[in-house]
Design brief:
The structure is a single chain. This protein folds into two domains: about 10-85 and about 160-210 and about 300-369, FAD/NAD(P)-binding domain; about 100-155 and about 215-300, D-Amino Acid Oxidase, subunit A, domain 2 (D-Amino Acid Oxidase, Chain A, domain 2), CATH 3.30.9.10. An eight-stranded mixed β-sheet has the order 5-6-4-11-12-13-10-14, with helices on both faces. It has a six-stranded mixed β-sheet with strand order 8-2-1-9-16-15, with helices on one face. A two-stranded antiparallel ribbon has the order 3-7. It has helices spanning about 15-30, 45-50, 65-90, 105-120, 130-135, 160-175, 265-280, 330-340, 360-369, and strands spanning about 10-15, 35, 50-55, 100-105, 125-130, 145-150, 155, 175-180, 190-195, 210-220, 235, 240-245, 250, 285-300, 305-310, 310-320. Strand 1 (about 10-15), helix 1 (about 15-30) and strand 2 (about 35) form a beta-alpha-beta unit. By secondary structure, the chain is of the alpha/beta class. The protein binds flavin-adenine dinucleotide and glycine. Glycine binds near residues 50 and 252.
């Protein structure tokens, strides 16, 4: 870092959705805050996300703590989106569109039945639909569709707009934003507290924090004729399609353990389109705007790392949001602001859980590669 910055109460390293939202909330509590990003604000993984707010679709029996947090953050999203719109005038594209989980053949139908049973056990709202019933809700679905599950509580926002709104909210609140400002030495920052919100790169800023990159390739598609291909988020084996409501669609995403590689491959694009087209043939008529890859900040237990570093009171971690960083943005921002203002909220995502003898050094090494 070469730029000389004024003293701040808090320096946030990383200007993705997590760093920006935490900075905004901290500033609202009266703290002087700077955000430092080595590139453009929001140009890391946040820009690459689909924006599904999917606590039900992403539910896993082994991750009950994460599910509760995901549900709470989904509950907060409408008010969070409204507050951002009121403060900035930016509409983040919140759509209460619901989601359909789709099955093409007998194997996938059995899988969907198991997913339904799990969600019912967890007390989550789901509705079993025969192929014909699902096609009444989405008429462009292929006649071969065998079974579907409606997830009426899983919705979506548009991450690019969320980033734009957060930048504007931070600016208006008086957060000092410093893009193109890489940080490699936390001790060089003139700030009382440092929040590490560096996404998939966070492991490079502190030992013992096992964040690793998990690559996801995705496509932005567009129907020049306007909206109409589908209204719900569609999830299926190998991907999902997120309609923006105006003729634009996001088709994602691969899950690949390939370190910091962000190459877009012919195979990745082919597989996404093939899987989607089997269920929604009209996807092949869309125009291709962009193919890209992002790096999810993964952790060994798939849950984020949020809280003061037990080895260094100056440092607060806000990272490791893996597949749900957009969803978890409202809750994480409040937890970080609590932490910075002296509260120690009870939750299951504190960094301590990795900072003992069982720390996964393999993942840490991979993050440093
Ligand atoms: P980032 O957005 O990556 O921000 C970190 C920032 O830190 C970057 O801007 C980077 O430049 C900066 N930085 C790194 N190192 C330094 C340094 N040394 N100095 C200064 N700055 C630094 N989540 C959902 O909730 N719903 C979805 O539908 C969804 N879909 C996804 C689809 C794909 C293909 C991918 C890849 C992810 C998806 N996610 C989704 C996950 C979500 O995108 C992430 O969890 C989230 O964006 C993480 O935000 P972040 O702010 O922690 O990281
Ligand atoms: N949450 C969707 C993804 O990470 O691909």
């Amino acid at each position: 870092m070469t730029t000389q910055l004024p003293h701040a109460d808090v320096a946030v390293v990383g200007g993705g959705v997590i760093g920006l939202a935490a900075a905004w909330r901290a500033r609202q509590r009266g703290l002087e805050v700077v955000v430092l990003d080595r590139g453009d604000l929001g140009a890391g993984t946040s820009r690459a996300a689909a924006g599904m707010l999917a606590p039900v679709g992403e539910a896993d029996a082994q991750e009950r703590g994460l599910l509760a947090c995901n549900l709470e953050s989904a509950r907060r999203w409408p008010a969070f989106a409204q507050e951002l719109a009121d403060v900035t005038g930016v509409d983040v594209g919140y759509r209460a569109c619901g989601t359909l989980l789709l099955a093409r053949d007998r194997d996938e139908a059995e899988h969907v039945e198991r997913e339904r049973a799990l969600r019912e056990r967890l007390g989550l709202r789901v509705e079993r639909l025969l192929g014909s019933q699902a096609r009444r809700r989405e008429s462009a679905l292929a006649p071969t569709l065998r079974l579907a599950l409606a997830l009426p509580d899983d919705h979506a926002v548009e991450p690019v707009r969320v980033v734009a709104a957060l930048i504007e909210a931070c600016t208006r609140a008086g957060v000092h934003l410093h893009p193109q400002t890489p940080v490699d030495d936390l001790s060089a920052l003139d700030a009382d507290r440092v929040v590490i919100a560096a996404g998939a790169w966070s492991g490079r800023l502190g030992a013992g924090v096992p964040v690793r990159p998990v690559k996801g390739q995705a496509l932005r598609l567009r129907d020049p004729a306007g909206p109409g291909l589908c209204e719900h988020v569609l999830r299926f084996e190998g991907g999902y399609l997120v309609p923006r409501g105006d003729g634009r669609y996001y088709l994602g995403a691969t899950m690949e353990e390939r370190g910091f590689d962000t190459a877009v491959t012919a195979l990745g694009v082919y597989e996404l389109l093939r899987e989607a087209a089997e269920l929604l043939p009209g996807v092949l008529e869309l125009e291709l705007d962009e193919a890209f890859a992002g790096l999810r900040p993964g952790t060994p237990d798939n849950a984020p790392i949020v809280g003061t570093d037990p080895r260094d009171e100056r440092v607060v971690w806000a990272t490791g949001h893996f597949r749900n960083g957009i969803l978890l943005c409202p809750v994480t921002a409040d937890l970080v602001a609590d932490e910075l203002t002296g509260a120690r909220p009870e939750h299951a995502f504190r960094p301590e859980r990795f900072m003992n003898d069982s720390t996964d050094t393999t993942a840490t090494e991979s993050a440093r590669a």
